[in-house]
Please model this.
Amino acid sequence: SLEEKIGKMVVEDIKDEWPPCEDKEAAKYLDLLAQRLLSHHEGEKETLKFHLFQTPTQNAFALPGSNVVVLSGFLKNAESEEEIAGVLSHEIGHIVSRDPLKFVIQEQGLGMISSLASSGPGAYGDVAGVATTLSSLSYSREKELAADKFAKDLLVKSGYTTKGLISFLSRREQAFPEIMRPLEENLSFLSTHPKTSERIEFLKQGNAAAKKSPPSLSAGQIKRLQSACPNHSPYETN
Model:
């Protein structure tokens, strides 16, 4: 219940950063892909809650309480069902390991948990700090690689390959190659993080799915996801 409280208050606070998008049809298609993935997860069953926001930023990230934030820039630029499923499977890996909650405790301290447990959500004042922390998650090398391993296994069990996740990571790496490579190689605070190239090489190993299954979404439904949240964000410039 504490995880749910934290997740809800952060989702509400993120609305100050990005306009929310009440696109029920897009959320339905995301849930369909999530159900396909989760049906092959052998551990405790999770029910993901999707929250769409309008922004050209290309990303998706998990919050405590099985909440997943999906940004419209990611959907707009997604190239296939496998790419969307790949990113979702990685975030499911973080949720199953409770990485978002552990990250909040690490960054904000146990005082936040104690405050919420004793007095409810209104007792904790630094909601903005938690939201900022979670909207710019930066996990350790071990946690990111563990989420990649989870995603790789789950994708194969679900009848996908890892090509979609590789495609997403490759585009992100190519966006700022001149900046990111020296940072990854030289800055100490990034030294524990896996390089994108390392993650891609791991995902390429045994790339073929054990049994390739038909897509869950039609070409029309993928196009509908790509056009989710059609209204331009006020933070987007042309």
Notes: The two ends are 42 Å apart (CA to CA). The chain is about 55% helix and 5% strand. Residues 185-191, 232-238 have pLDDT under 50 and may be disordered. Residues 141-157 form the longest helix (17 residues).
